[in-house]
Design a protein that fits this description.
Oligomer: single chain
Structural class: mainly alpha
Number of domains: 1
Low-confidence stretches: 1-9
Order of helices and strands: HEHHHHHHHHHHHHEHHHHHHH
CATH topology: Amino acid/polyamine transporter I
């Protein structure tokens, strides 16, 4: 028996829902009863945070974090602290909307003026701009190259090095340079073949598992376990106590801004310490597919192999504000906090700390890590200075870190586009016989094919800096929109507190300012 609503504003009317967009009104259903809160049940329910952590750790924590700290010192780690805290609030507020409606946060944004077609089109463009290039696939390929050939790839000589040799007229140096160019060209060909294989393996993995979220969750738990066991072991082995303390202190040196810093690198660090951009919005999609709150009654995206017959509604379902439903809401929220605060956010802090701490102990200060094979630098330094067996172990760790992010980013890209098109377009829903899985896999095939070409556009570090810049732009826009969604579309009883609203606006302003600084730096270099 359902209790009567405790508030007349418990379920927004159709007029209230459609006045801020062109999506159909929500349906009304009962909020599912979560399992009683316990450790055993927690492991059954949580999981989206593991997917997000695995998708995060290969970027900011493995590539950009160590590169920034080795170049500028541990005092810049306060940027990671601010970034992870702001992104945590952002994630929780996106999930708040999904718990109530069963819709991903982006669907809520599409309910805002000027409507779903405008915002749907805008986010299709932003998603493609941020994640359309598989930036982590080439970095992952470096680790496989190292395991296959027992060395890092040869870097091609820079234009400046070529000019210096030509100017010197040294025949021996010129011959050596030519050999390096030939070896670099050969290694690049091998790397491209490996990269193609990684893109293909990513596609295959996403085809299995009942629902795509479930497959990603299983893979993520495995990769996280290996990554953290390895990182904890080598940190305990190699890193002296003084470095542990100074690395930890860096997370709290707020306001430390080193001289001569590269704005683009810092903007990328700020955006990718955590997840960054579209990845933060997509947590609500995984929450829905896992069955949190009203996500349990709207459906999920099934796998093409072994997938259950699951239908996904393009319109959310909301619940009446009753005493019993509010009890269930608070219990669901406890699981959300466990998934996001204690799994994702704490995992991001630990991942950043362990990766940076290890890098500081084994890599000379000031080393330009963009010149070292991305994904292989830690393995190379450990093997050269300690034990040769760490070459394979380190490369394997780098592989799992980078591949987990490659896998997660691919799903984020395709999932965001699929959900956006599925929600906004009746033509898309009719196009594939009402099967969202067919839409998902059609887009996955298209972007996998595109990725085979896109990996030629630059080095792993260059591509990742571009990704990070776009992530900051997305965060600056979406932060304001989540504020509007949760204050205009949710019942008063479920709206965020004032400090959470303020944090969303601070998040938007911070990422907007950092993106402007990075953009100015890029443009000024064009005209320098």
């Amino acid at each position: 028996m359902t209790e009567p609503p405790t508030s007349g504003a418990s379920v927004p009317s159709a007029n209230e829902q459609t006045s801020r967009g062109t999506l159909p009104p929500w349906e009304v259903a009962e909020l599912p009863e979560p399992l009683p809160f316990s450790v055993r049940n927690a492991f059954k329910i949580i999981g989206p945070g593991a997917i997000m952590l695995a998708a995060s750790i290969g970027g900011g924590e493995w590539l950009i974090g160590p590169a920034t700290v080795i170049k500028h010192g541990p005092g810049v780690l306060w940027i990671a602290t601010v970034a992870i805290v702001l992104q945590l609030i952002f994630n929780l507020e996106g999930i708040r909307y999904t718990l109530y409606t069963g819709e991903p946060a982006l669907s809520g944004i599409m309910r805002l003026k000027p409507g779903c077609r405008f915002w749907g089109g805008a986010y299709v463009l932003l998603t493609a701009m941020q994640l359309g290039v598989p930036a982590l696939a080439p970095a992952t390929a470096v680790t496989v190259f190292g395991m296959m050939l027992d060395r890092v790839p040869v870097e091609a000589p820079t234009d400046q090095e070529i000019r210096d040799v030509e100017k010197s007229g040294d025949a021996a140096a010129s011959a050596k340079l030519q050999q390096e160019r030939e070896r670099a060209a050969s290694d690049r060909g091998t790397l491209l073949k490996i990269t193609y294989g990684i893109i293909a393996i990513t596609l295959v993995i996403l085809m299995f598992g009942g629902t795509i979220e479930r497959m990603l969750e299983i893979a993520s738990w495995f990769m996280i376990a290996y990554i953290f066991i390895f990182l904890i072991a080598v940190n305990l082995w190699f890193v002296p106590g003084s470095i542990w303390l100074s690395t930890l202190a860096g997370f709290f040196e707020f306001g430390n801004w080193p001289t001569g810093v590269e704005p683009l690198l810092m903007a990328t660090f700020f955006a990718t310490a955590g997840s960054g951009g579209i990845g933060n919005l997509t947590i609500s999609n995984w929450i829905r597919d896992k069955g949190f709150g009203m996500g349990a009654v709207v459906g999920a995206i099934p796998s093409v192999v072994g997938g259950k017959e699951v239908r996904l509604s393009h319109v959310g379902k909301v619940f009446a504000i009753t005493t019993d439903n509010m009890r269930r809401w608070r219990l669901w929220w406890r699981y959300v906090v466990l998934d996001q605060v204690w799994l994702w956010a704490l995992g991001c802090f630990c991942g950043m700390f362990l990766n940076v701490n290890l890098a500081r102990a084994i890599i000379p200060h000031g080393t330009d890590l963009s010149k070292v094979g991305a994904g292989a630098f830690q393995a190379q330094y450990m093997a050269d200075n300690f034990w040769r067996g760490l070459w394979i172990l380190g490369l394997l760790n780098g592989f799992w870190i980078l591949f987990s992010t490659q896998l997660g980013n691919t799903d984020v890209l395709v999932r965001t586009l699929t959900d956006t098109l599925w929600t906004a377009s009746s033509r898309v829903r009719r196009w594939r016989d009402g099967s969202i899985a067919k839409v998902y896999y059609s887009l996955l095939l298209v972007f996998s094919a595109w990725g085979l070409f896109a990996v030629h556009l630059g080095s792993a570090m260059t591509l990742f800096k571009y990704l990070g810049t776009m992530a900051g732009v997305v965060m600056s826009i979406a932060g304001v929109q989540l504020y509007l969604v949760n204050t205009r579309l949710l019942p008063r009883e479920l709206q965020p507190s004032w400090w959470r609203k303020a944090a969303l606006l601070i998040c938007s302003l911070s990422y907007g300012a950092m993106s402007l600084v990075a953009g100015y730096d890029i443009v000024s270099k064009w005209f320098a």
